[in-house]
């Protein structure tokens, strides 16, 4: 990172940002092009959990190339100035890399959905096993992550 004074290195601080974030931008590579998907997610123990319908472009891509990156940000605010070039942003963010794994078993899906619901302060009413079989659940196991803050 170019600006060491803005870097967040403590895992506890990174975890706090991840737990507070509401949207995760998942970045993947498709036919030599970047593809970014804003998604709801859950985070626990350096693993991000996502849910999806049973088909779609992101699933096609992830099955072909499970390597992905992610970005979350919180507390964003524009800091205006009298000169346009002096405007700034206040934020905290985390960027990381990892590999996606699909969760096929019912118990694993139920656990992942519970983590996703906890991300948003909700409780999951147990979904019937038949309903879980129609939901695609995948996780991104984090291999590395870094944080950055500005205005703090």
From TrEMBL:
The region annotated as signal peptide is none
Q: Which regions form coiled coils?
A: none
Q: Name one Pfam family in it.
A: Pyridox_ox_2
Q: Which InterPro entries match?
A: Pyridox_Oxase-rel, Split_barrel_FMN-bd
Recorded superkingdom: Bacteria
What protein name does the entry list?
A: Pyridoxamine 5'-phosphate oxidase family protein
**Whose protein is this, by species?**
Desulfosporosinus fructosivorans
Q: What is the lineage of its organism?
A: Bacteria, Bacillati, Bacillota, Clostridia, Eubacteriales
């Amino acid at each position: 990172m170019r600006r060491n004074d803005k870097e967040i290195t403590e895992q506890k601080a990174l975890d706090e940002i991840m737990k507070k974030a509401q949207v995760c931008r998942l970045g993947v590579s498709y036919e030599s092009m970047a593809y970014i998907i804003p998604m709801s997610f859950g985070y626990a123990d350096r693993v991000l959990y996502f849910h999806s319908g049973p088909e779609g472009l992101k699933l096609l891509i992830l099955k072909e190339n499970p390597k992905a990156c992610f970005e979350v940000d919180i507390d964003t605010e524009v800091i205006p100035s009298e000169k346009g070039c002096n405007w700034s942003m206040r934020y905290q963010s985390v960027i990381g890399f990892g590999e996606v794994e699909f969760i096929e078993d019912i118990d694993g899906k139920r656990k992942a959905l519970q983590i996703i619901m906890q991300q948003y302060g909700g409780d999951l009413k147990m979904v019937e096993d038949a309903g879980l079989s129609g939901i695609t659940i995948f996780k991104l196991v984090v291999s590395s992550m870094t944080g950055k803050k500005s205005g703090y």
